[in-house]
User: What shape does this take?
Amino acid sequence: MSLPLLFLGSATGVAALIDLLALQREPTLQSELSLSAPLLFGFAAGLALFSADQVQWRFRWQRLSLRIAYPLAMVACAIALDALTLPIGAALIIGPIAAVLLAMMLMRNADARDEADYLTS
Assistant: This one.
């Protein structure tokens, strides 16, 4: 469930870093970062949809409603928003934290998958 949100945070941080280092002539932390909301939320919706099988749902209503509603909410954000504007300083704070959490989550998932493969062999 957190994969799409961590992706959004990580992508925001990378975009802020690129904007700060390469695109601005006089970089400042107070300047605004404008991101393509349809692109970001579209990818997040895809991640939510394709990773829903990996979530261990506790209740049947979660499997039925959240599995569909969560990606649809992100698609609605992609359609409703044209651009997402954030201060570069905030994006530089959010981005690394989200990237570290995303890396930890992916490493934990890989370890669990390796352990499951070892136990079934």
